[in-house]
Amino acid sequence: MRLLRRLALVLCVQAAIAPHAAAQDYPDRPVRLVVGFSPGGGSDLVARILAKALGKTLGQAVVVENRPGAGGMIATRAVAAEKPDGYTLLLGSAAAFVINPYLRDDVGYDPVHDFTPVGAVSRFDYVLLGRPGLPAATLADLLAHARAHPGELTIGSAGVGSNTHLVALAFLARGGIELRHVPYKGTAGALNDLLGGNIDLLFDSVPTVMQQVKARAAVSFATTGAAREATLPAVPTFAQAGMDGFEASNWLAVFGPRGLPAAVVERLNAGMARALRDPELLASFEQSGNIALGGSPADLAALVARETRQYKTLINATGVRLD
């Protein structure tokens, strides 16, 4: 009986020590960073910039794996079901964590309870574009024209319930104007139609339209950040253009499956903090219109909670659903 008790004690001690020892050795093989969008897009670009810098700080390769589909939901579901050992991580987006779960009932994951926050990576802002020849040169001109001609101007988006649609809805509410919504399957088609004069307005991300803005291929009314974009210094913010209190951005952050050991989270977060100070990463982010974030896992959890409240309020107020 005494021998059985000793054996049980040994097994308990070994069970307690094993995860700690594994965490101390972490990582001892390559780490997968899953992205819910296709190669070549904005999320993929950020993932590859981060993977290169994070691989150096962790001492192991970080391999980007693209699992596109359903606005990032396919990748998010897949990572939620992975073993929480730190070798499969998700580059999650605001769409997957604070928008889609409240627009539809079939996401297949709980954005809070099924994941372990690791750290925020980057954010990017939006710019409001107008078609060439639009009878408005400033935001004040645009608002005056829209109020004088309610429902005549059109505004495109990446689709019903997309980030760009919700930003547009917030803009309409804040500006007290009425526009006709034209949804697309992604902003690429919307941007082409805007440049061709087929729609009047579009919110698109700074990284996506930076070159068109610099070339003045469209009217650039304002950006949605708190400060002017370093890459677009000639474009005012909404506050500078006369609309105080209107800001919007999208962000990308690293999450692990639920139950990721605290020591692994700490190791990853410390590695990310060093990676996000890497001069090469910062230069690549600035060149592509992304802004490095960083911060603790608790900071990321707070970001998700704060934006969940904001988007749920907007979604409930507008009645937008994707079911």
From TrEMBL:
InterPro entries: BUG, Bug_dom1. Gene3D superfamilies: Bordetella uptake gene, domain 1, Periplasmic binding protein-like II. Residues 1-23 form the signal peptide. It comes from the Bacteria. Keywords: Signal. The keyword RNA-binding does not apply. Belongs to the UPF0065 (bug) family. This is ABC transporter substrate-binding protein. It comes from Bordetella genomosp. 2.
